[in-house]
Amino acid sequence: MSSPDLEKINQELEIRIKELALINEFSQLIVSTLELPKLYNILDHFLGEKLGFHEFALLLREGEEEVVVQVARGFADSSKVRGMSFKTGEGVTGLVFQSRQPYYIPDTRLEGRYLYYKGEKSEDGSFLSIPLLFKNEIVGILNFTRSGTGAFAAQEIQFLNTIAVQIAIALINAGLYSKTRELAVRDELTGLHNRRHFREILPLEIKRAERFGQSLSLLMIDIDHFKKYNDTFGHLEGDKRLREFSKLLLTSIRQVDYIARYGGEEFVVVLPNTKKEDAVVVAEKLRRKLASDPQQNLTVSMGIASYPVDATTLEAVLEAADKALYQAKWNGRDQVVVFNGVWTSPSADPANKVFSLRDYVRDKQGGTSA
């Protein structure tokens, strides 16, 4: 064997060793987290900083016929590329989604199906699209662009295909973890957050309100006579009604608000940065909306308590709202009651009772509240 041949073999071996070391390093990095945002950051840093790919996009599959850009680097305005979607068969990316095969364009000027990221990239060059596959199912797509024609060598493409296998596995694991975690905090019947998650969220919301000097209000909601409804129409019909009721609640609150199924036919709504008087308006509007909805044909009782005017701890705020709710039910249901003091029983001293909505409004207007 001649010296030039031996030198070539040694060079190829050295390159291969470096590639294996990089693959090993990459594998250790991406298995270090099961959270998608952190995984995106690792991919962005490793591919961009470590491997020197300055223009690339990671797209994840959403549904059966679409992939959406989650990570974008090297674009004039990457924020316009993130969130961009490609349907199956749309452009080169859609072609890769459809065929599940890599596609390399040495010169984008000669490929009519190349869409230039729908106008967000104007420069020509080389384009490489690699499917991220797991058990022959597409998880996502990894796109690379580089200035110049024929800018990706065969060995480089092979290396990126190997990396793509690792990325697909990492994305599957992170996705499964995300779904498992979501199931753990969601109520199976209604899809709302469950009581456990609510009790984790409320202390954080209270701390946030304390930090920024804001108010926070809590609505405890109970569907009136729901046991009678179940006994009359059956539990399957009752479950259907709970799901419909939950959807209506979701469409009646702000995006910043938080809602959970607290148990049975009882729900809780957290209203961040909301004073008690504003919470009263929200609650009464919601009560009337539910009562007037012919599809629901039900009424609710509500109790309101606010931080920090009524209580300053998780348990105290919950207890105050619960007492107000109990008063609403004892008063005859289908009404909103506002907590305004210490209350121990329906026959408590009126000076220390939970206020009805009428009492609360009258008190705010300067009248008596006995």
Strand order of the largest sheet: 3-2-1-6-5-4
Helix content: 40-55%
**Which structural class best describes the helix and strand composition?**
alpha+beta
> Average pLDDT across residues?
83
Rg (CA only): 29 Å
**Number of DSSP-assigned strands:** 12
Helix and strand element order: HHEEHEHEHEEHHEHHEEHEHEEH
Per DSSP, the total helix count is: 12
Unreliable segments (pLDDT under 50, ≥5 consecutive)? Answer: 342-370
Main β-sheet: number of strands, strand sense, barrel status? Answer: 6 strands, antiparallel
Please outline the helices and strands.
Blueprint: H1 3-30, H2 36-50, E1 56-61, E2 66-73, H3 78-81, E3 85-87, H4 91-99, E4 103-105, H5 116-119, E5 126-134, E6 137-146, H6 154-185, H7 195-212, E7 216-223, H8 226-233, H9 235-250, E8 258-263, E9 266-272, H10 276-292, E10 300-307, H11 314-330, E11 336-338, E12 355-356, H12 357-364
Parallel strand pairs: 10-11
Antiparallel strand pairs: 1-2, 1-6, 2-3, 4-5, 5-6, 7-9, 7-10, 8-9, 11-12
Helix pairs in contact: 1-6, 8-9
